[in-house]
Each structure stands twice: as C-alpha cells, then as structure tokens.
Design goal:
mainly alpha; 109 residues; 0% strand; 78% helix
Length: 109
C-alpha cells in the first residue's frame, strides 16, 4: 500500500523539472514569443500519455493568472476543450498546436 504512495512521490520528483518548464512557459504568455512556445511543445508534451495531466496543470497556472488578466478564464476553457478533443482521439500534434496558438492569441491579441 505504501509503495504506491512512495512511487507517486518519486514520479513527481522526477517530473519536477518538467513542471518548472511548463510553469515558466505558461505563466509568462504575455512576455513570450509564440515561436518559443511552439519550440518547447515537444519537450513539454514529450509523453503524450500524460497530456491530460499536463493540461490540468496548465489550467491551474491559468487559474492563478486570472487575478492579473481575466482573459485567462477563456484560456481555461480552451484548455478544457483541448483535453476533450484529445480524449476523442483527435490528431495530437494538430490539437496541441491549435491549443498553443489559440491561448497565445487570447492573451496577446
């Protein structure tokens, strides 16, 4: 029973660098070029099986940013729509590319 919790803790520790990278990119959309986000896509979404978890984390980042810019509410909706599309087996790369471009445009208009 404890080994499951220990394994989860170890996995989270292993993913710490990934989550730092995700936060750096998605908490700074106002100051980052779209090309930089797209170029980091392959690193952030390297494990396609974890896309739902990654998108949930991105939504938490957006929730924290609502105080600074209410456009992040729309970004949260876009993120949820992206999760839904991926769960319906849409093309992964096209869906993530669309997600990135749409949220960047929402913030940077």
């Amino acid at each position: 029973m404890h080994s499951g919790s220990v394994n989860k803790a170890i996995n989270l520790k292993d993913k710490e660098k990934d989550y730092i990278k995700i936060k750096k990119v998605f908490s700074n959309l106002e100051n980052i070029d779209i090309i930089d986000i797209i170029s980091s896509k392959d690193e952030i979404f390297a494990n396609k099986g974890e896309a739902d978890e990654i998108l949930s984390y991105i939504n938490l980042i957006f929730f924290d940013k609502i105080k600074e810019n209410t456009a992040y509410i729309k970004c949260m909706n876009i993120t949820q729509d992206t999760k839904d599309r991926l769960n319906k087996n849409n093309n992964f790369d096209m869906t993530i590319d669309n997600f990135i471009m749409t949220i960047w445009e929402e913030i940077n208009g």
